[in-house]
Write a structure and sequence with these properties.
By secondary structure, this protein is mostly beta strands. Helices cover 10% and strands 41% of the residues. The strands form two sheets. It has a 19-stranded mixed sheet that branches. The chain has a four-stranded parallel sheet with strand order 10-14-17-20, with no helix packed on it. Helix 2 (64-73) links the parallel strand 3 and strand 4.
């Protein structure tokens, strides 16, 4: 079943669901002094200066993968000029030095954002291409990830979330795209659970869910429990494979969903081709 549906920005759709003493004194003063000296970590901006995907501590460049590791570990990616500095866990990746270039991921190694990090990416039109070998991006528990003008392409997994996957995260996408990715289970492009998702002016197209597991959901995007807000998004030509799939474009189960100016165009699934909103008690 193919559907073409467009929801005007003037009429957003909203659904909700319920689912001795001196020594002690010296020790104490020393402890306070150390604490004051350490202080809180300050947010770091990583200037990404290569479109290559590798980890090499002596090459004098800072890749996206090295920056994400440095943010997690608090250790520089190398000791020569040009390497990524130590991160703070609340950091920004600036991709302006590689504007509009493509980062091709090596082997079956998705980019990973470690649990608890707060990452912002200024994408500058860069494409991250998994080449059909892995997901593009995996978000750890409690992550906050925000990307602007960043494209995620050609992800693959036999599980859920072909391009992007996360649990108990906050995901914000502004601009960019999620394209041509495949999940054996739910969420061909994106799969989120117990998460808060906001997507604005993004193109989600050519993604497929359920090619290995029949009866799956969400060719373009699937969310289970949480909040989904989409504004000015085009969800086009996504699909759910098999004989009993649902929601070729979007699937939302036990979630609060707001769609404002969203175009659902030519999405395909055996049941509920364009959009499935399902709510559990």
């Amino acid at each position: 079943m193919k559907t073409t549906t467009r929801y005007p920005s003037s009429n957003p759709i909203i659904h909700s669901a319920t689912p001795g003493a001196k020594r002690h004194l010296i020790a104490a003063m020393t402890s306070v002094a150390v604490g004051l000296a350490a202080g809180p970590a300050h947010a770091v901006t990583f200037d990404i200066n290569t479109a290559d995907d590798f980890v090499n501590p002596g090459d004098g460049v800072c890749s996206v993968r090295e920056a994400l590791i440095a943010s997690s570990t608090g250790v520089p990616s190398g000791n020569v000029p040009g390497e990524c500095p130590a991160g703070a866990g609340v950091d920004t990746l600036d991709l302006s030095a590689i504007t509009n270039q493509t980062i091709t991921l090596l082997g079956a190694q998705p980019l990973e954002v470690a649990a608890g990090l707060d990452i912002t990416v200024d994408g500058q039109g860069v494409t991250i291409d998994a080449g059909g070998n892995s997901r593009v991006l995996e978000l750890g528990l409690g992550v906050s990830f925000e990307a602007s003008d960043l494209n995620f392409e050609n992800g693959f997994t036999t599980d859920r979330g072909g391009a992007i996957v996360g649990e108990e995260v906050t995901l914000t996408l502004v601009g960019g795209s999620v394209l041509n990715s495949v999940a054996g289970g739910k969420g061909g492009g994106i799969f989120m659970t117990e998460s808060t998702v906001s997507i604005t002016q993004t193109f989600i197209s050519g993604n497929t869910a359920g090619n290995l597991q029949p009866g799956e959901l969400g060719g373009g995007l699937a969310i289970e429990i949480g909040t989904l807000e989409m504004t000015g998004v085009t969800v086009q030509q996504n699909s759910v494979a098999g004989a009993a799939g649902f929601g070729g474009g979007i699937s939302a189960v036990a979630a609060t969903v707001t769609l404002d100016g969203v175009g659902l165009i030519d999405n395909d699934a055996p049941t509920a081709g364009g959009l499935l909103l399902a709510f559990l008690d």
